[in-house]
Amino acid sequence: MAVAYQPLGSRVSSWVPKRFVPLNKLIIICGILFTFILVLLPFVNETAHDSVIDGASSVSSLVQWGSATPWTGKNASDGALRSYGKKDNFRENLRPDMNYIMSGFHSGWTNDVMMGANLIHLGLLTNRTPILFPFPPARHLRYIDDAAHIPPSLPFETVFDLPRLSHTIGIPLVRISELKARVPGKLLVGQEEDTIQPVEEEIGGWSIWMVTNPEWHKPKTSDQEEEQNKEIEDGRRCYQLDTYKIKPYFTPVPVTFRPVIDWTSVHFAALASLFKPLPNPFTQFYLTQVPSYFTERHREQPKLAPDDHVLYIDFLYNLGEAEGDSRYDWTGRGKLGKVGAWETVGKYMRWEPEIEEMTKGYLRRAFGVKDKKGARIPPFISVHIRRSDIGDICKDLSSEELAGTTDKNCYAPIQKYADRVAEVQKLLLEEKGIKTAHVLATTDEHDESFLKEVRDLGWIMLNHDKELTIEKNGLWYPTLIDSIALSLGTGFVGTSGSTMSILARRRVEEWNGGIGRQVLRKYGGLDDEN
């Protein structure tokens, strides 16, 4: 029987107590109740705590999005799964009452780290739990240029402290390896092959690349693009989807999301409005308009519409809060200042303790100090000299355009790095009273004559050949150890426009309270990046 609505005031005013309770008796009753609550409270708290630690399926164990109480699970994924142990499919362990978001990585190590932070940032904006793929092998690794010799993928948790990150930002984080087994032969660093044979799964996803790339109006992982990339490049781009036998069908995001200037940021706010879980009026209306997009372009409509339970996105690199190059969000020196995925996620992605301690051992040995855990490492300035693919930017420029650069590849002269190091040393001494006699340099250049120039400055370089880094730990570790070592400096000097330099500088400045500078380059850098 339906109950007619009554204003709150009318219901309260009509209620009259049948019996008056004397004040002294009321005090006694309240005292008994208060004592009873105090006795039971520790047991209630312990029970509630255990339900979170055990990843109970009740809604009470979930993170309360946007609440003042942070997630307090023991593992990064606690509360986000209904069952445990990898299966032959990725859906079985997921909770039906939660929504998730995932995307592959395929842009090189540092760019992939940024994409991971962008994914988690979108999860925060849309109330979706991120599902993290491992990092695929990239061209930055030193390995044989042969698709038959691709190194294993790198688990997210091998390099980043996921439980700490989850605790800090207040949401659970799920690894794809907690959900689904890998195809035989597809290896992860530090893990054995799976014994379960995965099944192929189809999923409808969203493509940002289809409407933002000025040259290629297809999803980032389309078969057509794979045909354009041979050998190692092909293996790198489709490695993750092949590893977990996931076949996506992509729907483009609205063409109005495309930036006016090619290769500039797609706004997080626009994507969040589309990616929020259903019922979402904007998404529901837009999906009714999608058929015309394919009809006008004489293309076949995707087999599956975007999945709402597990939202899959093809490419998450060129995203930001501000207009212009998405790298400005990461420098913290763009028009909007400190915004974006670095502020909400990136600066909380601290290194996994074991690999950080390993890196400190490298530094102690390089600086000739006592090589013992916990032994003091002297203050130093870390330097990142990016070369390799920078040369590709300028190889077709005229001699007039290359004026002021060292050679046809328009690299900045090594002296410019030395001048910046001297500047940072001076600032550290004047502003913080810190004397930094040691300088650690990293570079992707292998030309011995250039490396001699660096050493002649008295700068130290980690010797991965002498340390047998690859032989002991694998092909990923020279890159990982260099990245971590850069972040441990008191000061930093990098290469303008290099994402590795941008992240290293932010870590030094915000984690260590250090001072950073960048060496500007004539082409390919960021104009206002000091």
UniProtKB/TrEMBL annotation:
User: What top-level branch of life does the organism fall under?
Assistant: Eukaryota
* Gene Ontology biological process terms in this record: fucose metabolic process
UniProt keyword Membrane present: yes
Q: Where are the transmembrane segments?
A: 26-44
Pfam families named among the record's database cross-references: O-FucT
Instruction: Identify the InterPro entries for this entry.
Output: GDP-Fuc_O-FucTrfase (IPR019378)
Please provide, alphabetically and separated by semicolons, the GO molecular function terms listed in this UniProt record.
Answer: transferase activity
Q: What keywords are assigned to this protein?
A: Carbohydrate metabolism, Fucose metabolism, Membrane, Transferase, Transmembrane, Transmembrane helix
Protein name (database record)? O-fucosyltransferase family protein
